[in-house]
């Protein structure tokens, strides 16, 4: 591939992977079973990214392993209903067309593990989305570094990735032990704790003392730590498939006071123009919870529930979309609030129950954040 014997696009992709391997002193390439490509929204990659993708597609680039996409900048089918500007939508469609030409699955989700793509313990993959990387490494026990968009695409084309970092067992050791003294009651509490811990540990890997946590709560915890820090791996004693902690690990204590102060710091206290749920993408269980809530009482503002297309279709079969619409909301597929052009759509204050969304919305979307439990932000 590197010598160009299998074509120009594979040579280009292998050059990227080889350069990455040299930077990290990888001794070899290893096969990967799947790749997840980020850099899908026009908002994040712009005209330069679009041009690169169109060049690769025009030269016949094709993926050689199952490869799927992160969220786009809009719902592909109902972008007009969302209020997406036409010029943005046209550029976004060009990006998605380029990826399709390369044989990449149009999943448009940050939670591939919720639509049946669940690599097993020890399985090597090349995923790019920060929260998906944290979930795959931690909750599933798979092996992936946090790939960039170009390196994940290259891995998809070549079917390999450099052998370094979290692909190697001895590098998967937690250096921080987190003792939890806070009373964690809601999903939002886990996202808030993740925001706090991510900021404290940075790029280190935390190990949590035994706590009761659902898969949804682990998803929100990992996503927030990956956003406020750069955490690609965490352990929860008795819950995650692995629990490997260094003998000299530093200890951090997370208290009720930390939880309270963190929420106060994140939350603007203002009434949102729009409430956005599903960061990472909402599961069918999360959608059901919101449906049960809004059936009883109509929210005081517009709201989106962001999810994968496959999950949206399941929700429609159950009639959830109609209940959400009657309550003033939209069940949104393919995208999320973080990669949408919210400012250009006239929104200034966005509500979120996700620590990840709360971290990214101010910088990426120029939004004030109304942060809290779903019951709080929907009815302010």
Short précis:
The chain has 380 residues and is of the alpha/beta class.
Describe the secondary structure blueprint for this structure.
Blueprint: H1 8-23, E1 29-31, E2 35-37, H2 42-58, E3 67-69, H3 79-82, H4 86-101, E4 126-127, H5 130-140, H6 149-158, E5 160-162, E6 174-180, H7 187-201, E7 206-208, H8 215-228, E8 235-236, E9 245-254, H9 256-266, E10 274-282, H10 284-296, E11 302-307, H11 309-317, H12 320-326, E12 329-333, E13 349-352, H13 355-365, E14 368-371, H14 374-377
Parallel strand pairs: 2-3, 2-4, 6-7, 6-9, 7-8, 10-11, 10-13, 11-12, 13-14
Antiparallel strand pairs: 1-5
Helix pairs in contact: 1-6, 2-4, 5-8, 7-8, 7-9, 8-13
Rg measurement, Å: 20 Å
Sheet of most strands: 5 strands, parallel
CATH superfamily caption of the largest domain = Aconitase, domain 3
Alpha-carbon distance between the two ends: 57 Å
> What's the number of helices?
14
CATH hierarchy: architecture of the largest domain: 2-Layer Sandwich
Any overview of this molecule?
With 380 residues, the protein is an alpha/beta fold. It has 3 domains: 8-164, 2-Layer Sandwich (Aconitase, domain 3); 173-262, no CATH class; 267-377, Aconitase, domain 3 (2-Layer Sandwich), CATH 3.30.499.10. Helices cover 42% and strands 17% of the residues. It has helices spanning 8-23, 42-58, 79-82, 86-101, 130-140, 149-158, 187-201, 215-228, 256-266, 284-296, 309-317, 320-326, 355-365, 374-377, and strands at 29-31, 35-37, 67-69, 126-127, 160-162, 174-180, 206-208, 235-236, 245-254, 274-282, 302-307, 329-333, 349-352, 368-371. The chain has a 5-stranded parallel beta sheet with strand order 12-11-10-13-14, with helices on both faces. A 4-stranded parallel beta sheet has the order 8-7-6-9. The longest helix has 17 residues, at 42-58. It is globular, with a radius of gyration of 20 Å. The protein starts with 7 loop residues before the first helix and ends with a helix. 50% of the residues are buried.
